[in-house]
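Comment thread on ticket #2218

A.B. wrote:
> Attaching the input chain for the structure job we discussed in standup.
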Amino acid sequence: MGKLIAVLSGKGGTGKTSLCAGIASALAQSGERVLCIDCDIGLRNLDISLGLADFCALSFVDVCSGNYPLDSATQHPDFPTLFFLTAPANCTSADIDEERFAAFLEDAKKQYQFILLDAPAGIEAGFRLCAKHADQVILVTGADPASVRDAARAGELLEKMGKTQVRVIVNRVNEKLYHDLCVTVDDVMDRAGLPLLGITPDDPDVTLSAAFEQPLLCYNKRSAAAKACKRIAKRIQGFPEPIPYK
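C.D. wrote:
> Ran it. Output below, let me know if you need it in another format.
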């Protein structure tokens, strides 16, 4: 059975979607069979970060409803073992049939080694829908006080949901900003109250790759953010990859 990973954030603007795409690409690049699902209904942007904005893709609701088989997911042109389902355009998270969604995810775990759910930011229905069925949760935060507070709140909710496999990624780390704020990554971890999965730097190549409609790992595989995504992917796979504290 594959592993279902929900990628969440307590607030918008943390870079959650870009990070989800980068990790999914890195897992696929290493040979894993990966399904990446955009669950951010109404604000779907995962296709841009994956470099699939010009591709037709089914929504996960199309598959959940039984109208299309799971193997109709869009195959990535650059990463043959990476597949994608987008979010529906004309419904809300509250409209999703949870029973069908759960059955769909169980089927996906039989066909893919990793399923990544890019959940909507915040702690509303979409957050809970994705977290409920996840084997592991990645909570993405920045260093600013609002992001850290919201990450801590999200962590509390996940604990109440019985989720024990929750790890935090501190994203867009900027050494000068951290110095000016008199804050460290350890401070962010302590305030969020969660163990660390990884650190990703503030990297303009993330924005540039999306602007040029290319996956980060194709646009510049040597960029600092791309290397960080590869390290995080290795940790998810169970390899003892060190976390560079800077």
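A.B. wrote:
> Thanks. Noting for the ticket: Residues 145-160 form the longest helix (16 residues).
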